[in-house]
Structures are given as structure tokens and as C-alpha cells.
């Protein structure tokens, strides 16, 4: 056994922050296998402490600063 975690699926709009209910962009998988989901705001507050306790962090908060391709201007 390598100790590596199985790949996690991407977070979707259905995944909600365990603190406030907003859309989750950060998943913390604890060493015991439990998961915590956080919005970007609450993730920034808790990720360092969770990582120090051995949690594996999946951070998709960079999606908040990207522009969807469908919003790009038409280049005709």
C-alpha cells in the first residue's frame, strides 16, 4: 500500500460549503477518510490547519478568477 489517495472527482455546483452553504471550491480529505467541503473564503481560513493535521487538500478556487470560454468575445 502506497498511502496515496484515490483521485477525487471535480467539485460541482451541487457541492456546498460545510460552514455556510455557499458553493464549495475546496475539499479537505482527512486522514481517517472523512471529507470537509469549503467555499474559498472558509477554505482560506481552515486549509493551513487541516494540512498540518494531515488532510489532503483539493483546491479548485482558481476557477473563481477564470473567464468561461462562452463569455469570450466573438472573433469573427
From TrEMBL:
One Pfam family cited in the UniProt record for this chain: DUF7455
Taxonomic lineage: Bacteria, Bacillati, Actinomycetota, Actinomycetes, Streptosporangiales
Domain spans labelled DUF7455: 11-64
Protein name per UniProt: DUF7455 domain-containing protein
Amino acid at each position: 500500500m502506497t498511502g496515496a489517495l484515490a483521485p477525487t472527482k471535480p467539485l460541482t455546483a451541487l457541492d456546498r460549503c460545510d460552514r455556510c452553504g455557499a458553493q464549495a471550491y475546496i475539499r479537505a480529505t482527512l486522514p481517517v477518510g472523512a471529507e470537509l467541503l469549503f467555499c474559498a473564503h472558509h477554505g482560506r481560513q481552515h486549509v493551513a490547519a487541516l494540512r498540518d493535521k494531515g488532510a489532503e487538500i483539493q483546491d479548485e478556487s482558481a476557477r473563481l478568477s477564470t473567464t468561461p470560454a462562452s463569455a469570450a468575445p466573438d472573433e469573427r
